[in-house]
Amino acid sequence: MELSRRSVLALAAGLPLPFLVSGRAAGAPTAAPAVEPSVRYTMTAFTNASETDLYVYESTDATTFLPVRGPAYTPPGGLLRDPSLIRHRDGRFYLTYTTGWEGQTIGFARSDDRINWTHLYDYQVKVPGVTSTWAPEWFADPNGEINVVVSLSDGYRFTPHLMTATDAELRSWTPLTPMAGLAAKDEVSYGYIDTTVVHHLGKYYAFTKNESTKYLELAVAEQLAGRYSFVQTDDWAGWGTPREGQSVIRLPDGGWRVFFDAYDDGKYFYSDSHDDFRTWTPPAELPGLSGTVRHFTVLAESRGAGPAHNG
Prior knowledge:
The protein starts with a helix and ends in a 9-residue tail after the last strand. It has one helix spanning 5-12; strands spanning 39-47, 50-59, 66-73, 81-87, 93-98, 105-111, 117-124, 132-140, 146-153, 158-164, 177-178, 192-200, 203-210, 216-221, 229-232, 244-250, 256-262, 267-273, 284-285, 293-302. By secondary structure, the protein is mostly beta strands. It has a four-stranded antiparallel sheet, with no helix packed on it. It has a four-stranded antiparallel sheet with strand order 4-5-6-7, with no helix packed on it. A four-stranded antiparallel sheet has the order 8-9-10-11, with no helix packed on it.
């Protein structure tokens, strides 16, 4: 199949493409051969029934997700909450997750096929005074760096911290540093949690839960580590409160989709934007899995492309 220069560049960058259909030789049947979808979406979640087991689902439209395997992985000890997924340059899938309601570790696991998983290690957070380490989220920077954003608590408030891999095996990390601009604004606020970052239009956009108001808010920075400035707060998108567990993906048409957990309602929703995060569609309930899955991550992969970065 011959691709346009634009398509080749898009695939190399890990960007979604429309369906790719092979050409037809002279005299061949008119029916087009079956083709795989151009984008595969993989969801990693824990569920209402278990906070120690990983469940894996996949979709071709980022809406209807079908089971791949569940449980797919149970760590040797502790919990498995808030599982975040990435596909690394080695072609393997890596998971990071919350290991406990209290403690100073986050977990890591690896898979070749999203079905069979191996526990790698529990990473010890070396930050004085930390009582809880929650909701680690992968961020693959366009500059090639692999990062994890994790929310650290001092027993009262949460602050997003950043660590960057220093080896290709994702076993060695830079010291955790607070993300500037995402700390609590005063002595009584509870800070920010469940932070997930996407790169768009040359900037870093952080979707983060205000732990005081329980709204999902939006901040932007020129650098991944910050300083972030909040550009949207309170109920700016009409998503309501309390909301958490947000995961943000790019759609094939250039828009964006956010998934989030309406945990008091026992439902999961998604909402789309097509104007660079300014406005969003009314939240729609995720079919099939709403009320079952909790705080998940969705990984979008283009067929034939290498691992994609965030945004």
